[in-house]
Design brief:
The complex is a heterodimer of chains A (815) and B (522). Chain A has 815 residues and is mainly β. Helix content of chain A is 6%, strand content 37%. Chain A is built from 7 helices and 51 strands. In chain A, strands 4, 5, 6, 7 and 8 form a 5-stranded antiparallel β-sheet that branches. A 4-stranded antiparallel β-sheet of chain A has the order 9-10-11-12, with no helix packed on it. Chain A has a 4-stranded antiparallel β-sheet with strand order 13-14-15-16, with no helix packed on it. Chain A is globular. Chain B has 522 residues and is an alpha+beta fold. Chain B folds into 2 domains: 305 residues, YVTN repeat-like/Quinoprotein amine dehydrogenase (Methylamine Dehydrogenase, Chain H); 121 residues, no CATH class. In chain B, the strands form 7 sheets. Chain B has a 4-stranded antiparallel β-sheet. In chain B, strand 18 and strand 19 form a beta hairpin. The radius of gyration of chain B is 31 Å and the shape is globular. The N and C termini of chain B lie far apart (69 Å). The chains are: A mainly beta (815), B alpha+beta (522). Chains A and B meet through strand 24 and strand 28 of A and helix 3, helix 4, helix 5 and helix 7 of B.
Chain lengths: 815, 522
């Protein structure tokens, strides 16, 4: 939040038990207050110069503490709560309040903590707000009601706090302040805020509707369909009609309540779709990188590489420029309204509340919201193939998959590369639906792969003996179609007319195949497009991509690698470009096959959650979940060593990302991603390869930048030191919006840079972004320049070329 | 930065792959020929001809008369030309619509005035019945073909025979003028041949062997292809390629009696020449000419003898052997272009009264005034029109949304709403809490559509949910019980059908395998 005394400074507080004061003009930390316990909430009283901190004790329970900012001391007493609840303070300073499950405490502000007034309620409170003059107090509860107290100042005791237990000193019924209850929300109230003059109350919740209550009449007014659950509302100090609305989908919107319009939206990388994970065998990593050439232009961003395409809630696909850390586009894969799902039978029906829902049958488990499970792009980025999953009418959480092929809405003509084109280009959808295939496989679709050169895609899926793969091919219709149009219909009329003019294309199934009724789990095309590899349970079947004839079957890897353990089904296949190797990942084993001998080249008895091949250098990156007990034994012999990773058992132990050389199974680079279960790896096309900075480096010791996308949608760019330019090197951006302090400064100046004040508190790795940051080559033991010469002499570039890189590494400070 | 619009997105109706040609745009177009006008004639309708000029009158030949119907009012009995002593054949309009020529059982070819019906010329040379008479493109000549195996070329002005074309060895039953050259004619006869004539030289150019008695001949609009009907098939000939047989279309069970080409039929999205053919098996089939596939088929109650389609594709007339004429009108006719559009009347101007203060409209005048180009336009906010089920979905009234969808009575709408409800998790509230009157339409819908393969998966799941919810109250209402019984019967019937189909497939499988093994080279 903004420093009340200085517009250029802002306070942040975080779970690492510190409060920091930043100057966001200079982008640097000014001072730091260290509290012993993680801080959940903080408010500042401007006149008194005190701050109330709501801290969550590590051993359980919460405290509201008072910190005097002038003297830099904490007050002697603290208010004890069961959980650290949010705080509210009246801007004029009379009162402060917090909530603690079923209790709401209001107290007078002062140099010490006063005796609070307890306002109990039958439902748990979820949020609260105090009007600026302190005359109005609003609190939302879990049933969606908003409780309003007016003129409660006289009822608040004036005494200082005496004993530890605050709630005991309840006042008699006669002294209780008058209460008004308004109810619109169907879900728990997410956030509340009063307008500056106290005539309006804004509330929001999981419905994605901003409700504006006129407090004179208690009549609601709505701004619906904001696209995601609302988690915070902050008024703008400059304009009383403007509010910042914080959404759970990592988006901040500037809302003008006078016109009831959204004026600006700032989006980050959206969170992963909630709901059930895809069925067993599906890697679930639907994230894909757009092909560098045409992709960036298609979604309206500047040229260059690194456009990440990730699925988010409500069957949307978000295109995100990881290089610039900028949201680019959202494509709605299935045209639906964003609705908050109904609760169970007890929770009523939807936000509208249909009457008489008591006769409803006992609903099964909450159906998963629709989401895109797989996405693939053609080599030139002109065609996108998606598989989206949505719940079925079946009673047991069954789902139905739908395969869709999309044409790029634009030609290959590059858009303007400047950032301002984003708004203009957002009017036209970047992709137009071409063909829709319902239920391409029985039950679910496990894999989707696109041919690197031809317009050919393959899907694999189905359960049991019905498991098969299908090859889909793009066909060009004659210019005058015979009228027997398929199920497809492109939405845009202009695009449809254009396609008609040039002879419309459509997709159809060319052939199907299966192998011994084994479940097919993954599919991949070789880089030249001649071989199709399909994983059948623990084996890999190789097919001729053109004729769909079975070429070879590679044996299951587990039998070769470790005698026992059972052969788990493969979940991912990757050809390593430039080498005759095929990598296969399964929950129990990472295997590399040599395609020339059709045999296992080497195998690692550790399950890999994600693998990626480096096209430029012929390397293989694998994400191996760290075992819970100890550092992995298999990597001990590795030349680069492994930093020991013993973590508290409460968190998942994290994932090791290791870059292998597929030729000899030697790990080249390593880094550790803590506290996640899965990551998604993909190699960025190496932009730095052409730049002069790395011109002299040895190719054998190099590696393309590796994008590590965590399950909470934080991503890291792991690169060799020096391959990215120094300022933007290895931007580690935690994109969770939860702890990003939202203050009026953003209303006035827009969002600060994500790598600055905003992201730091939530950075789970602690300040400095150590492990996931630049930590590519894990050569902590030896000087960094050693990597330069870690290559056979015949592969080393001439000394003249090496010298500059060597010097630059020597002269720059060690990270 | 961007902000996605917060408008309610309408429910997108699920579009399924067309089940048959009926569901394509083409099928929809041809099914729009509605409201048949049935006119009973005195004998089999042997020929139908449309005038090329507005209002596209049609001349039908039945028994001893040629009847001219007004193209704008085909229901009204038209002018009858009954100056025939015996059966009349092949009543044909001249291209300007003023004269009509017809052959007859007595061999005389007559030319009539289409308005006054008076006989203008009589050509008497044929010894046997003259089954075919056609106007030349120059409007001054008539070609006639007769059962005396000759084809004759008459000059209307002088009333004399110009040419006698010999070559057919059996009855001549069909003739057509080439649209490419006015001097080229094609005739077909019962000697299984189609002959091309040049009336300048008076000799046969080509002889094409159809393989069966030829009943009708037609040229394609460009003139480079011709089609002949005879036997139970059609033959498409490439005339430019020296009379090569391009395609043989065996889509009929019985003799194909008539074939017509319409240059601009079909839906607007794919308007192109279409071929229509009628057969004694009572079918009229429409072919598209790219791949010669049947795009539409209509069944008529009796053998089809003749058919015609008006140049603006508004009327489709079919004459049958049981002496009925059926004229169907398309409800969205096209505007004719080119030469056919010449006779089109000017659109009538509405009479507008002089506005005075005695008229209320005087006080609201100017409200529909168009803005000038220089005026600043304020765009009116468009109100999105929502269907009832969309309105209910928008208000989260799931049960009402399902009721509204059921009231639309379109299974696609119901399926889309059910899928949307399932995706929103609102299927339970939508299905639950119903009383007997509101449960009945749902059960009836299930009964009607649960066996259609495209809805089976969805509706079976819905049915399971429904039965789970309402099993305790079965027996409370007789109507609901009856509906549930009907559903059970329908399912039992379907299961029986599936079982017998499975048996049939099992019986066929060895046969197919054996034939496949035999056909494969060892």
């Amino acid at each position: 939040m903004l420093d009340p005394n200085n517009d250029d400074q802002a306070y942040t507080w975080s779970l690492d038990a510190t409060v920091r004061l930043w100057s966001y003009r200079a982008g640097e930390e000014l001072s730091r207050i260290v509290v012993r316990e993680p801080i959940k909430y903080m408010v500042i009283h401007k006149d008194l110069g005190v701050a109330y901190l709501s801290v969550q004790l590590r051993e359980g329970g919460g405290r509201v503490m008072l910190y005097n900012m002038k003297t830099g001391k904490f007050s002697g007493t603290a208010m004890k709560t069961r959980v650290a609840g949010p705080l509210a303070i009246a801007a004029a300073g009379g009162l402060a309040a917090t909530i603690d499950r079923h209790s709401l405490f209001v107290w007078r502000t002062g140099a010490d903590i006063h005796q609070p007034l307890n306002l109990p309620h039958t439902k748990p409170y979820t949020c609260l707000a105090l009007s600026s003059d302190g005359s109005l107090l609003a609190a939302g509860d879990a049933s969606g009601r908003v409780l309003l107290w007016r003129g409660l100042e006289p009822a608040v005791p004036a005494a200082l706090r005496r004993e530890e237990h605050s709630g005991k000193a309840a006042l008699g019924p006669g002294a209780r302040p008058p209460l008004t209850t308004v109810h619109w929300h169907a879900h728990p109230v997410g956030c509340l805020a009063f307008s500056d003059d106290g005539t309006y109350l804004l509330s929001g919740g999981a419905e994605g509707v901003l409700v504006l209550w006129a407090l004179e009449t208690n009549r609601p007014n709505f701004l619906p369909r904001l696209g995601g659950p609302l988690v915070g509302i902050a008024p703008s100090p400059a304009d009383p009609a403007r509010f910042l609305v914080r959404q759970a989908d990592n988006c901040v919107r500037l809302v003008n309540v006078a016109t009831m319009k959204v004026e600006t939206s700032v989006m980050g990388l959206r969170p992963a779709p909630a709901g059930l994970l895809p069925p067993a065998g599906v890697a679930g990593g639907a994230a894909a990188l757009l092909p560098a050439a045409a992709g960036a232009a298609a979604v309206g961003g500047g040229g260059g590489s690194g456009v990440l395409c990730v699925p988010c809630e409500n069957s949307q696909l978000q295109f995100y420029d990881v290089a610039r850390d900028r949201h680019m586009q959202i494509v709605q894969v299935s045209p639906r309204n964003q609705v908050s799902l109904t609760d169970g039978p007890a929770g009523g029906v939807g936000a509208g509340g249909a009457p008489g829902s008591s006769g409803a049958p006992a609903a099964a488990a909450q159906p998963p919201p629709p989401f895109v499970s797989l996405v693939a792009f053609s080599g030139d980025g002109s065609v996108m193939a998606t598989v989206d999953v949505r719940p079925d009418a079946g009673p047991y959480g069954s789902t139905e998959a739908c395969l869709k092929f999309w044409d790029s809405g634009r030609g290959a003509g590059p858009e303007g590369a400047s950032a301002s084109t984003s708004s203009s280009s957002s009017t036209a959808p970047p992709f137009a639906l071409n063909t829709r295939v319902d239920e391409p496989h029985r039950d679910y679709v496990a894999a989707l792969a696109y041919h690197p050169t031809r317009h050919l895609a393959v899907t694999a899926g189905g359960t049991g003996a019905d498991s098969e793969f299908k090859v889909w091919v793009q066909e060009r219709r004659p210019a005058a179609p015979g009228g027997s149009g398929g199920a497809a219909a492109g939405p845009g009329s202009a695009a449809a007319a254009r396609r008609r003019a040039e002879g419309a294309t459509h997709w159809r199934c060319l052939s199907t195949g299966g192998y011994k009724g084994l479940p097919l789990g993954a599919a991949a095309f070789s880089p030249d497009g001649s071989v199709l590899a399909v994983a059948a349970a623990a084996r890999v079947t190789l097919w001729d991509a053109a004729s769909n004839a079975l070429a070879a079957v590679l044996p299951p890897a587990a039998a070769v690698a470790v005698g026992g353990g059972g052969a788990a089904a493969l979940t991912q296949l990757t050809f390593v470009p430039g080498t005759p190797y095929l990598a296969a990942a399964s929950p129990s084993c990472l295997t590399v096959y040599n395609l020339l001998t059709a045999a296992v080249h080497w195998a690692l008895p550790y399950g890999a959650v994600s693998i990626s091949a480096d096209a430029a250098y012929g390397l293989l990156a694998a994400a191996l979940p760290a075992p819970r007990s100890a550092p992995t034994a298999g990597e001990d012999g590795a030349a680069n060593g492994t930093p020991s990773t013993t973590k508290p058992s409460s968190q998942p132990p994290g994932v090791h990302v290791v870059v292998f050389d597929p030729r000899d199974a030697s790990p080249r680079f390593h880094c550790h991603v803590p506290a996640v279960r899965t990551v998604h790896l993909s190699h960025l096309p190496d932009a730095g390869r052409t730049s002069a900075a790395v011109g002299g480096e040895a190719a054998a010791a190099s590696c393309s930048p590796l994008l590590i996308l965590r399950e909470d949608r934080a991503y890291s760019l792991a690169a060799l030191p020096g391959t990215l330019d120094a300022s933007g090197a290895a931007a580690d951006v935690a994109t969770l919006s939860k702890a990003q302090p939202l203050g009026a400064l953003e209303a006035a100046f827009g969002r600060t840079s994500a790598s600055g004040a905003g992201a730091a508190p939530m950075d789970l790795d602690g300040p400095g972004a150590g492990p996931t940051g630049p930590a590519a080559a894990g050569d902590r033991g030896k000087p960094r320049w050693a990597a330069l010469f870690d290559a056979p002499s015949h592969a080393l570039p001439p000394p003249a070329a090496l010298a500059s890189a060597f010097l630059s590494l020597l002269t720059t400070a060690d990270a | 930065m961007e902000y996605e619009p917060a408008e309610y997105q309408k429910l997108q109706l699920r579009s399924y792959a067309p089940r048959s040609i009926r569901e394509t745009a083409e099928g929809k177009y041809w099914r729009r020929f509605k409201a048949p006008v049935i006119a009973k004639q005195f004998g089999a309708v042997s020929h139908i001809d449309f005038c090329q000029q507005y209002p596209y009158n049609l001349a039908i030949t039945a028994s001893t008369r040629v009847i001219i119907y007004n193209g704008l009012a085909p229901a009204v009995v038209g002018r009858t030309i009954s100056r025939f002593k015996d059966i009349a054949y092949s009543g044909c309009f001249r291209s300007d619509g003023r004269l009509v020529c017809a052959g007859g059982q007595d061999g005389i070819v007559q030319v009539f005035d289409a308005n006054s019906r008076s006989v203008l010329r009589q050509f008497k040379a044929h010894k046997r019945p003259t089954r075919v008479a056609r106007w030349g493109a120059d409007r001054l000549h008539v070609l006639s073909g007769s059962d005396d195996v000759t084809v004759r070329w008459w000059d209307v002005t002088s009333g004399s025979q110009v040419l006698r074309l010999d070559g057919h060895s059996d009855y001549v039953r069909a003739a057509a003028a080439s649209p490419a050259s006015p001097d080229t004619w094609a005739t077909g006869g019962y000697d299984h041949t189609v002959r091309l004539w040049d009336v300048r030289t008076g000799g046969a150019v080509t002889c094409l062997d159809h393989g069966a008695p030829v009943e009708d001949v037609a040229f394609f609009p460009a003139g480079s292809l011709a089609v002949s009907a005879g036997g139970n098939y059609l033959c498409v000939w490439d005339l430019v390629g020296g009379g090569r047989l391009l395609k043989r279309l065996s889509n009929f069970q019985k003799t194909v009696t008539c074939v017509r080409l319409s240059p601009l039929a079909g839906p607007d999205s794919a308007a192109a020449p279409r071929m229509l053919a009628g057969s004694l098996d009572g079918h009229v089939k429409v072919f598209e000419l790219d791949s010669f596939r049947v795009t539409h088929a209509t069944k008529y109650p009796s053998p089809v003898m003749s058919l015609g389609i008006s140049p603006d594709c508004r009327l489709l007339a079919v004459g049958m052997a049981d002496s009925t004429l059926s004229v169907r009108k398309h409800d969205r006719p096209k505007q004719p272009q080119g030469a056919a559009a010449q006779g089109l009347p000017e659109p009538k101007r509405k009479w507008q009264p002089r506005l005075t203060a005695a008229n209320y409209r005087y006080y609201i005048r100017g409200q529909s005034t168009k803005a000038a180009a220089t005026d600043f336009r304020v765009r009116r906010q468009r109100q999105a029109k929502l269907r009832p089920y969309d309105k209910m979905l928008r208000q989260f009234r799931y049960r009402d949304a399902l009721d509204a969808a059921l009231a639309v009575r379109q299974p696609e709408v119901v399926a889309s709403v059910l899928e949307e409800l399932a995706a929103r998790g609102g299927l339970g509230p939508a299905l639950g809490g119903r009383d007997a009157p509101s449960l009945l339409p749902l059960v009836k819908h299930l009964t009607k559509h649960v066996t259609e393969p495209r809805y089976t998966r969805l509706l079976a799941a819905v049915g399971h949910r429904l039965l789970d919810a309402y099993a305790p109250v079965v027996g409370a209402c007789a109507e609901v019980d009856a509906a549930l019984g009907a559903l059970a019967d329908r399912l039992a019937e379907e299961l029986k059908l599936q079982a017998s189909l499975t048996q049939l497939a099992g019986a066929l499988e060895p046969l197919l395998a054996a034939s496949l093994a035999a056909s494969l080279p060892a």
